[in-house]
Structure prediction request, 401 residues.
Amino acid sequence: MRVSRGKGSGSDDRLFTVVVEGFGVGQQRRAERRITVPFQQLQTLIQSIARNGGRILVVSADAVPDGPISQAPAIPSAVAEGPAETAAGQVSTNPTPTPKTATVSHAAVPVNLYKPKDPFIGTVVDNYSLLAEGAIGRVNHITFDLAGGNPQLHYVEGQSIGIIPDGADAAGKPHKLRLYSIASTRHGDNMAGSTVSLCVRQLEYEKDGQTIYGVCSSFLCDIKPGDKVKITGPVGKEMLLPEDEEANVIMLATGTGIAPMRTYLRRMFEPSERDKNGWHFRGKAWLFMGAPKTANLLYDDDFNHYQSQYPDNFRYTKAISREQQNSKGGRMYIQDRVLEHAEEIFSWIENPQTHVYMCGLRGMEPGIDEAMTAAAAAKGLDWSELRPQLKKAERWHVETY
Ligand SMILES: Cc1cc2nc3c(=O)[nH]c(=O)nc-3n(C[C@H](O)[C@H](O)[C@H](O)COP(=O)(O)OP(=O)(O)OC[C@H]3O[C@@H](n4cnc5c(N)ncnc54)[C@H](O)[C@@H]3O)c2cc1C
Prediction:
């Protein structure tokens, strides 16, 4: 390894270029890379390279001559464990500022304020259908008043609550709780900070020639304003938003998986939210929404409105399986849309400020995985290596059920 003292100014503003091999994600590990960081991040970068088994060839404040150094696609901070690797993502000899990783803070996230043995009793404020005429099934938006609890039941975007339906199971025991993703921001739909909303699909399936309806989802879809409901939680830290106002957020949702995405998008683009939350999102958000029919799209008017108001910050891509065709003439599923936009999705993911969120029925995971594998391969990356690294860097968030 050659370490040059360089001809820098001697001030802390100097930029250093590190040439490294065996460091990074996927093909990056097989290539030599030049990583330019400010002096303050140099030591952390060197430590991080050592920790990750990389080999430093050159450290220099001089320009490192362009040689046969690979320009392999960079997935910055997919391996991030600290700030150095954030900087390490910038494979460049240009003295441009390196993008920072948008981290997710788990601090001050409330968890299990109410447990099943002593649940909070919420009051139904609203319960209405989210579906348009001709839709399949039943999906409702349900709001509960949380006022009066001690402690006050509060939550942040990306969390879930538990609902214990009234009644007893076949053995005569009280029903167990079911989890539901929260669909309102921490301020609630009325901005007063004391309500929570859910987006609930009534489970319905056929068994032995009979139609079976889910216990809790039916209970929720049937309750009326004024009814009392046992609520637990909140729970969950998997789907939290990064605090960085310049983060980029890719959202992959099917059906009621839209619930957490609605909270993010309201937080980002709803005027009353922006006024109140003081969090002025300036990054880019891209929602991929899968539904069987247009009539089954949830909160579609709101999202169309955000797109018209924030065209530079919000993209909304729909996959409507029974109405649209994919390139092979089959039904258009969300994974087909991911494949269509693979190049762009991966260039977003290369930015360490990008987070990806997936939510919906568990069945969506293999399709998305397949699409990401193909999309990554087109960029010379191995998704099976990359995904756990993105996960470890807390940039790949999945909640399926
Ligand atoms: C973190 C998390 C978040 C969630 N968020 C939401 C949300 O936002 N919105 C939402 O609607 N749901 C959400 N769910 C799902 C929710 O918790 C319930 O599982 C769902 O509402 C069904 O509960 P139920 O009481 O109506 O059904 P149950 O009466 O409990 O019936 C479910 C059972 O029926 C059986 N079953 C289901 N489908 C079939 C089938 N096709 N064939 C045969 N048997 C079948 C299975 O044994 C299954 O366990 C979430 C789940 C989790 C874990």
